[in-house]
Amino acid sequence: MGPLQDRIAELSPPIEPLPTGETPRLDPIHGLRAVVFDIYGTLLVSGSGDISLASEGSRGGAATEALAAVGVAGCDGERVVELLHAAILEAHREAEMESPEVEIREIWGSVLEEIDVRLEPERIERLAVEYECRVNPIGPMPELGETLEALRGRDLRLGVVSNAQFFTPLAFEPLTGRPLTGGTGFNGEGGCWGFEADLLVWSYEHLVAKPSTALYEMLRDRLEAVGVGPAETLYVGNDLRNDVWPAQLVGFKTALFAGDGRSLRWRRDDERLAAIAPDVVVTRLGQLLEIIG
Fold first, then answer.
1. What is the overall mean pLDDT for the chain?
2. Where in the sequence is the domain holding 253, given as residue range(s)?
3. Together in a domain, 102 and 240
4. Which UniProt keywords apply (predicted)?
5. DSSP string, 130-184
6. Is the domain of 182 the same as that of 203?
7. Same domain, 192 and 240
């Protein structure tokens, strides 16, 4: 592992999901050849319920500690957080699209300029990790390992569509003992979780975020290129608006993951979702093995 991954391990105490009280609905789905996951709140327990950029809060102390960790002392943490959110909002406005994403390293660079601090790229990455781990502690969802092993054992292709930043894929090895992927081939290589590099679609790489269908369309096209159709693909996520709705629009089967009270999002106040329902509801990752016929 690299130094950033070592730091993620050091800053990630154990975290468990909270109960949801939901009842699983495990109707069998036949003919699946690929399973695609969201990350925060689905494969990883998330202390904030999502990547930290998705929410605001009083985080001045975390900013002060993160800056101190990279050698910048005496900063007003609350002002830094205000500048961080302002920079994100400005980037969203400039993007002129419905669901823009930011590149957090660029955002932190602009914030540092505002407070007259200069850091080399490696220290900006360290700062981003230090802050994220403090405001959004993460850990592996229960049953993650055995579920991924079983899915790979059934020769199912594994992929990701997730709102994310550069540190998201880095987190898997320190938190789970293995990286997501070890190669570009089907089921990767030994020592990884078997995700295919070509089937990992991260929002920060394309500067577009869910619930836009753009990320799902990218994955659909990549799956079709290897002979897997949308109706043969199951998408698993914890958010009806960001996960189930756009995945269904591109033709995927859907599983709502209702396994953590922090991250479960039914979005019942969103009228656009009135007619949207997942194909199945799972409250544990292991239940996916019961519905995949």
1. 95
2. 3-50+138-291
3. no
4. Hydrolase
5. HHHHHHS-EEEPTTHHHHHHHHHHTT-EEEEEE---THHHHTHHHHHSS-S-SSS
6. yes
7. yes
